[in-house]
Amino acid sequence: MLPYPFKPEEFFLNPVAKLVFIIICALGIYQFARRAIYLIKMVKAGKPENRIDQPVRRLLNVLKFVLGQRRLLNLAYIGSAHFVIFWGFVLLSFGTLSFLGRGLIDGFRLPIIETILAPAFLFLLDVFSVLVIIGLVMAGLRRIFIKPLKLSIHPGGYILLGLIFLLVVTDLIADGIYITMTGASESNWMPIGAALASVFGYGASSQFYYWLMFWAHLAAFWALAVYVLYSKHLHIFVAPFNVFFYTLKPRGELEKMELEESESFGATKIEDFRWKNILDLYACTECGRCTRACPAYASGKSLSPRDIIIDLRDHFLSLRPQNLKDDQGRRIEGNARRPLVEGIIKSQDLWACTTCFACQDECPVFIEHVPIILEMRRNLVLTEGQAPSEVAPSLRNIEQRQNPFGVPQSERPAWTKGLGVKILAEDSNVEYLLWAGCYGAFDNRNKDVLIAFAKLLNYAQISYGILGEEEHCCGDPARRLGDDYNFQMLAQTNVEIMNGYSVTKIVTPCPHGYNTIKNEYGQFGGNYEVYHHSELISKLLKDGRLKAGKTFDIRAAYHDSCYLGRYNDIYDSPRDVIRSVTGAKLIEMKRHRRKSFCCGAGGGRMWMEENSNQKVNQVRVEEAHRAGADNLITACPFCLSMLEDGLKGKNLDDTIKIRDIAELLIDSIEEMKEK
């Protein structure tokens, strides 16, 4: 509405009209506040957690991702539609606040906005009103005709679009009539509103239509405000808070479980989640972007990150606050509730997750899917003892033999034969600890990668050594499979050993070990400078301590490891190494860098069977084949093994050669030396 009262003596001073206005607003405020308090009380049923640290950084996230709509604008069609709807709604909210104020206080104006900035405000409100209508039409067409995969399409969506449309149209028409009836100078700043004036003309009927628009706008405003809180569209109000409270910890860091203080572990019931996880449930827009990015879903499994969030939310909202316990453990028992796992969420969906982080990276409202899934895994493993049968031997081997393969620890340093690699127990005076990792030390194919990397370190005259038999599994497989007890034992042991040798710098070819040691060992007193081998190799090339030899005329495609890329933002250093060997030539697959598609090994999936007809690793190698690659380059032992199996499964192993970046560079150097 316009920032000036139409005619106070004709309307706003009318006692009956003002009383009706006050009653409608009072009812709206009551219903809104009642529901909001209920929802807040439900969120507080979750476990306490500090999410108010670094407020400036959190506010910057809100500016970037809420006001700037950064993630949504990655999708041109719906992103642009959502952008204009969002900003139009923001501007319209100021107009509606002014409108409500004038209903109570004659001559009310919003400070600054309707005084100093009035011309700019009126112009933007006028233009964005039309843009919002266009955006609403685009959103409606998308729901009716385009129907993107996993987008929730239900009547509530159309109700929401209709109410927003009604708000905009009633405001636009009322402004047009005002200009017509008063000849106000605002017509210079409201070209669209002025154009509407000719539709309604002059006379008594115009006044009738003005009041009609007034009451329709009031009704639409309160209907929308209250409806949102009772509908599946809570994200309209919750999203800014969800972005603000998003974790600022490293992506690869899971919360440490207090094993000695807990009677049960993980999430057995909804209030076992942290309060931010519950807020996540409210924030879901049901857009399906998380599911469309999920490698498990893409390979035919039933896992849908979106459906997990929606099913948990619907279950949660069906409960009553008095049937939940608060953070002091006080609880009034209500009716028996279905268990989360198998009652609400299927266990097979939890175990299908590769923890690749694609869902979280895609979510426009910053829902934290992976921790929610892992909390339920923790409960299955630590409380219920229900790990999948195929991973039970690996977990047992990790506990008893300190590696998932069950190989004696004495075999760990076997790969170093003839390389002159120091063992810290014999000589700890080294610059870098080379963390071999279980796959590097025990898997025959990945031993070649470690050997290649060790040769590069030798060529560059880097001082390094290994723990040898003293190196235990980093614990990543155990933790991601839900066995935090096993993980903590391993982490404490490894930290104690490394601190005993005064280790300060660590380098490893394994992104899983890299992520765990860098981001999670700090929980146990292990604080080190941790480097992935791609980072160190790239630095040595730039410093001139390593130099590529023969230039290979190959069509090389690089596969971004999830734990290296999305988890730790390492994208360029592996590519720099490849370009040094290929003469700056590099093929990018359709999904690369942040959009990279998982190999299928993360989250403990390396030790599980792929039962679907379409396997994640085979989907990925087919993408490399379509890109025209004849060499597939990796920087992760898990990815190397999975993609090598994928090539064999698709009979592409004779067409595409797979190598680690260290192997590619050492081949280049040694082939040049042979000439």
Number of domains: 4
Q: What proportion of the residues form beta strands (DSSP E)?
A: under 5%
Please name the CATH topology of the largest domain.
Fumarate Reductase Cytochrome B subunit
CATH architectural designation of the largest domain: Up-down Bundle
Q: What characterizes the major β-sheet?
A: 5 strands, parallel
Distance between the termini: 81 Å
Catalogue the unreliable spans.
1-6, 330-336
Strand order of the largest sheet: 1-3-2-4-5
Q: What structural class do helix, strand and pairing data support?
A: mainly alpha
What share of the residues lie within helices?
A: 40-55%
Q: What is the gyration radius calculated from CA atoms?
A: 30 Å
The geometry reads as: elongated
Characterization of this structure:
The chain is mostly helical and 675 residues long. The protein has 4 domains: 15-244, Fumarate Reductase Cytochrome B subunit (Up-down Bundle); 259-265 and 276-383, Orthogonal Bundle (Fumarate Reductase Iron-sulfur Protein, Chain B, domain 2), CATH 1.10.1060.10; 401-541, Rossmann fold (3-Layer(aba) Sandwich); 548-674, 3-Layer(aba) Sandwich (Rossmann fold), CATH 3.40.50. Helices cover 52% and strands 4% of the residues. It has 26 helices and 8 strands. The strands form 2 sheets. Strands 1-3-2-4-5 form a 5-stranded parallel β-sheet. The protein has a 3-stranded parallel β-sheet with strand order 6-7-8, with helices on both faces.
